[in-house]
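Record 1 of the preview.
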Amino acid sequence: MLFLVVALLLFGAVLGAVAHAPLTFSVAAGLVIAVWLAVFAVRERHGRRRGTSAH
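->
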């Protein structure tokens, strides 16, 4: 439960920072995060197909 409270507080701080950042910076940061997540998803899917595990 404490983890959830801390996560929500950090989420609020990030949203507050984004609200005061220029729109171009917010869009660029969003694109970087989206590409990072897409690369992660592709690597995970590729790794699971080959039957390898990180654990």
